[in-house]
Specification:
The complex is a heterodimer of chains A (about 110) and B (about 120).
Chain A: E1 9-13, E2 18-23, E3 31-38, E4 45-50, E5 53-56, E6 61-64, E7 70-75, E8 84-92, E9 105-110
Parallel strand pairs in A: 1-9
Antiparallel strand pairs in A: 2-7, 3-4, 3-8, 5-6, 6-7, 8-9
Chain B: E1 4-7, E2 10-13, E3 19-25, E4 32-38, E5 44-51, E6 57-58, E7 67-73, E8 76-81, E9 90-97, E10 107-109, E11 113-117
Parallel strand pairs in B: 2-11
Antiparallel strand pairs in B: 1-3, 3-8, 4-5, 4-9, 5-6, 7-8, 9-10, 9-11
Classes of the chains: A mainly beta (about 110), B mainly beta (about 120).
């Protein structure tokens, strides 16, 4: 499984756009990139998943460059409730679904 | 998305007792479920992969006799912490894949179970 590297923490203010970048230099051809959000004392919540280029849903956008060695989670206009830990994971499809979590990025949104 | 539940949400037990935690997929069938443990201010650590109808696969360093896993049906996996000790106190989280969904490798996580061993 490809190893991921993210910033340990980030600070932002309400209303700003937040971009969290994850490095995964050893990503394999059949690996997908998935981001999860976790609040204290809760299980992780799926945010978005992608393979290449750009994916957008009602919560976030995921940008993946052509070489796929990194990805950027973009959260538009964050609010205080977006304060959480964000995890970037890389794993192959159709091979058991095992996920190995890195340390994640602790996002703090201030008023 | 798919819903995964856990029961109980928190449990306090005495040292030496066993504790069972249930993980259920509520609106889909999961042939594979996963169990994680998370200590304060740390990331999730995968403990084992629970396979319906077969033995669980444990990660390196996880004692299979200490953490018993039973995947009794396509919607239920249980984790039993046997002879619990204070160092087993942690946040236990399960997850399940819904292969029927588009993007079927997405894992959905339960809300977690807080275990405190006195």
């Amino acid at each position: 499984l490809a190893k991921t590297t993210q910033p340990i923490s980030m600070d932002s203010y309400e209303g700003q756009e937040v971009n969290i970048t994850c490095s995964h230099n050893n990503i394999a051809t059949n690996d997908y990139i998935t981001w999860y959000q976790q609040f204290p004392s809760q299980g992780p919540r799926f945010i978005i998943q992608g393979y290449k280029t750009k994916v957008t849903n009602e919560v976030a956008s995921l940008f993946i460059p052509a070489d796929r060695k990194s990805s950027t989670l973009s959260l538009p206009r964050v609010s205080l409730s977006d304060t959480a830990v964000y995890y970037c994971l890389v794993a192959p499809r159709n091979q058991g679904g095992k996920l190995i979590f890195g340390q994640g990025t602790e996002l703090s949104v201030k008023p | 998305g798919a819903v995964v539940s856990q029961h109980p949400s928190r449990v306090i037990c005495k040292s030496g007792t066993s504790v069972k935690i249930e993980c259920r997929s509520l609106d889909f069938q999961a042939t594979t479920m996963f169990w994680y443990r998370q200590f304060p201010k740390q990331s999730l650590m995968l403990m084992a992969t629970s396979n319906e109808g077969s033995k669980a696969t444990y990660e390196q360093g996880v004692e299979k006799d200490k953490f018993l896993i039973n995947h009794a049906s396509l919607t239920l996996s249980t984790l039993t912490v046997t002879s619990a000790h204070p160092e087993d106190s942690s946040f236990y989280i399960c997850s399940a894949r819904d292969p029927g969904l588009a993007g079927g490798e997405t894992q959905y996580f339960g809300p977690g179970t807080r275990l405190l061993v006195l």
